[in-house]
Amino acid sequence: MKNIKNEEQKKPSKKKLIILTILWFFSTGTFLLLMTDFFKESPFKSSYVGFFMILFVSAFGIIKIYSNYRKSKSVL
C-alpha cells in the first residue's frame, strides 16, 4: 500500500491545486443541489447528517492540500 511517494503527496503544484479546487466546488455544489432536490426542500434536515459529514471530510481534504502547498512554498 505504500506505493505512493511521500514527495508527491507533500508538494502539490499550483496547477493541481487549481484543478482540485474547481472539482471540489463543482462536486460540492452538485451534491447540494441533488441532495435538496434543486433547493425545493431545506438542506438542514436531520436525515442529511451523513451527507454533511461527507462534505466536511472533502472540505478537510482540500484544506490539507492547501496547507501542504503553503508548507512546500515556505521551505523554498
Can you offer a commentary on this structure?
With 76 residues, this protein is mainly alpha-helical. It has one domain. The chain is 71% helix and 0% strand. The chain contains 3 helices and no strands. The protein has helices spanning 6-10, 14-35, 49-75. Helix 2 (14-35) runs antiparallel to helix 3. The longest helix has 27 residues, at 49-75. The chain is elongated and about 50 Å long.
Describe the structure concisely.
With 76 residues, the protein is mostly helical.
**Element order, helices and strands?**
HHH
Specify the overall morphology: elongated
Helical coverage, percent range: over 70%
Query: What's the number of domains?
Result: 1
Termini separation: 30 Å
Roughly what fraction of the amino acids lie in strands? under 5%
- Number of E-type strands: 0
For the biggest sheet, the summary is:
none
- Uncertain segments are none
Instruction: Please state the CA-atom Rg, rounded to the nearest Å.
Output: 16 Å
Structural class: mainly alpha
Total number of helices: 3
Average pLDDT over all residues: 84
What secondary-structure arrangement, pairings included, does this model have?
Elements (H helix, E strand, L loop, with lengths): L5 H5 L3 H22 L13 H27 L1
